[in-house]
Amino acid sequence: MTRLLLVEDDPDLGLALRVLFTRAGYEVVTAADGQTALKLLFARRPALMVLDLVLPGLDGWEVLDRTRDLTDLPVLILSGRTSPAERVRGLRSGADDYLCKPFDHLELLARVEALLRRSTPEQWRGDYVEAGLRLVPERRSAVWQGHETRLSAIEYRLLEVLVRNRGRVVTTEQLLDLVWDEPAGAGRERVKFAVLRLRRKLAVGQGGDPLESVRGLGYRYRGEA
């Protein structure tokens, strides 16, 4: 049974969400504060975290930062903070999705299912090698110019799509469809910040940035300069 970590300090909402996820076939472990969430992250090894931002003690931002330092676990922020700035901050900080309260239960379940589907290792059978780059599916990593970097599920799929279309522009809409399984719309900003995180990780090596932004269109993998 797939295990979810639900981090929510509102007891009524936490109970309702636990019932919702349990009825959908998930095992649910809950935390009402940030410290407990991080302890459960290590102790119970969930497949996905649903994270509120307003928590006692360590807030959701701190939990997200510490989670991202240690694991590529899919994280869905579920928050009453609805401003575009908060959503952008969440995606830029490494969240895989951001859903505002109040929310539709079916939409929440659909988003959780999509994140879990994209994080399944079987999606990356086989490898890909080209000049300067090797994708390592069993570790979900990329070796760029001799430097290996672990990637999140989204980052790996994003890089794989761009690499397999080397030299061709892949539009934002195509990336949403191929990487996020979503059409264009509310999720467009996710592409921008996922590419930004991917570029930062690849830039740790000495080979320069292999990705190119094509203004008004999308992105292109150009490989070695």
TrEMBL record:
An annotated Gene Ontology molecular function: phosphorelay response regulator activity
InterPro entries: CheY-like_superfamily, OmpR/PhoB-type_DNA-bd, Sig_transdc_resp-reg_receiver, WalR-like, WH-like_DNA-bd_sf
SMART domains on file: REC, Trans_reg_C
CC annotations in GO: cytosol; protein-DNA complex
UniProt-listed GO biological process terms: regulation of DNA-templated transcription
Keyword 4Fe-4S: no
UniProt superkingdom: Bacteria
PROSITE patterns: OMPR_PHOB, RESPONSE_REGULATORY
Residues of the Response regulatory domain: 3-116
Modified residues (4-aspartylphosphate): 52
Keywords tagged on the record: DNA-binding, Phosphoprotein, Transcription, Transcription regulation
DNA-binding region(s) from the entry: 125-223
Domain OmpR/PhoB-type: 125-223
Protein name (Swiss-Prot/TrEMBL): DNA-binding response regulator
Taxonomic source organism: Streptomyces longispororuber
Gene name per UniProt: phoB
